[in-house]
Amino acid sequence: MREIFIAGAGPAGTAAAISGRLEGSLVRSVDRTRTARHKVCGEFLSPGTREILEQLSVWDQVAALGARPIRRCALNLANGTKRWTLPECGWGLSRLELDRLLLNQAVTLGAAVERGTVFDLAGQASGAVVVACGRKPSRAEDDRLFGFKAHFEGPGDDAVELFFDARGYVGVSGIEGGVTNVCGIARESTLRQLGFDFDEIVRRSAPLAERLRPLERRMRWLVAGPLAFSPPGSGTRSGAVYEAGDSLSFVDPFTGSGIMNALLTGRLAGQAAARGTSPEQYRRKCRSLLGVPFLISSMLRRLAAHAEWHHGARYLPGRLLFEWTRANMGRA
Ligand SMILES: Cc1cc2nc3c(=O)[nH]c(=O)nc-3n(C[C@H](O)[C@H](O)[C@H](O)COP(=O)(O)OP(=O)(O)OC[C@H]3O[C@@H](n4cnc5c(N)ncnc54)[C@H](O)[C@@H]3O)c2cc1C
What is the pLDDT of residues 178-193, one digit of tens each? Predict the structure, then answer.
């Protein structure tokens, strides 16, 4: 029986643990945190996520937790709002619940999990290792990017709304229990200028302030960063090491596809490690799934910083923008 060691118990690591167990491997998994916690994340589950959660046999639990259906998308640009209906339903579920239920499923299937243990690749014994420790540290020193998020209470709807301006963007969408997630990205210079006062930052945009007016914040703002985007398969690890999720590639969060990519690559990494597929073959597969969406979303992120682009963006079909920025699930 093959043995797989998994570092990280976010969506990528737990998907790897579940699929490793479903393939009949012995799975040992560690996470540096002692308990599941809230994470800086828009908590929007892109439409293809349901299929992967079904393959991992957890979709019924996600539905039972009251994941909120998200059917519409609205892009608030410099010169107005572009709206469309999503090709398939997406979902909103807090990371606290999602990460917890995925880990429970891995344990139920027989994975041995240690919390409060920090992984160090250098000290790792031989054998297959899935590295799913989240984003790689940013080396940027100038005007770094940070993410922030809080939960709000008040009237909700079935749309994921993105508010873009030159300073960054903020996403607003519903999760379970009638809660609304407000999560954004901004440059350090902007955050410093506004004294890291996130309430002030969201009030700066008139349409966003209007959207949040009936809502009340019910948790403190969480911050994460600095953030660095990385293309799929750019890692240089040697040996039987399979990087998954953000450790493999970190795509701009405005796509709302990071969790889906983490589940997808985690599942593939668990299978590859269990079947003895070479890490290079695994990385090739990941590049073929995520390479083009990564390039397109990087391009869109650069364009979004220019107000002139917002005029052109209004004429691009929303469904195409959505499809171009996510993995082709048919190829998975
Ligand atoms: C601002 C923002 C908004 C986002 N919004 C969305 C969204 O709406 N929809 C979406 O799909 N995606 C979104 N994302 C992306 C999404 O959050 C990530 O893609 C996803 O969390 C990746 O999962 P992961 O398992 O790779 O990493 P993580 O969720 O980061 O999990 C990594 C785990 O590894 C553990 N760990 C780290 N280092 C070690 C170590 N050395 N030893 C042991 N354990 C370790 C951590 O404790 C953690 O539990 C957003 C990201 C940001 C920053």
Answer: 999 999 999 999 999 9
What residues form DSSP beta bridges with 227? 145
Ligand 1 pocket check: which of 181, 259, 260, 297 to mutate, most ligand atoms within 8 Å of Cβ? 259
Q: Is residue 323 part of a domain?
A: yes
Q: Is residue 101 in some structural domain?
A: yes
**Residue with the nearest Cα to atom 17 of ligand 1?**
41
Indicate whether residue 9 lines ligand 1 (CB < 6 A). Answer: yes
pLDDT of residue 328: 75
Residue nearest to atom 36 of ligand 1 (CA): 133
Instruction: Tell me what pLDDT residue 79 has.
Output: 75
Q: How far, in Å, is the centroid of ligand 1 from the Cα of 206?
A: 30
The model's pTM is 0.94
Indicate whether residue 168 lines ligand 1 (CB < 6 A).
no
Residue 175 lies in a domain: no
User: What is the distance in A from the centroid of ligand 1 to the CA of 134?
Assistant: 5
Task: Answer whether 31 contacts ligand 1 (Cβ < 6 A).
Answer: yes
219 found inside a domain: no
Q: Is the CB of 147 under 6 A from ligand 1?
A: yes
Residue 8 sits in a domain whose CATH number is 3.50.50.60
How many domains does the chain divide into?
1
Q: Which long-range contacts (CB under 8 A, 24 or more apart) does 294-301 make?
A: 294/229, 294/231, 294/232, 294/249, 294/251, 295/231, 296/324, 296/325, 297/251, 297/252, 297/254, 297/255, 297/325, 298/229, 298/252, 300/252, 300/254, 300/325, 301/229, 301/252, 301/254
User: Averaged over 196-221, what is the pLDDT?
Assistant: 94
What's the pLDDT band for 164 if we cut at 50, 70, 90? confident
Q: Give the whole-angstrom CA distance, residue 184 versus residue 24.
A: 40
pLDDT digit string, tens, across residues 94-123: 999 999 999 999 999 999 999 999 998 776
Percent of the chain with pLDDT over 70: 95
Domain span at 51:
3-139+227-331
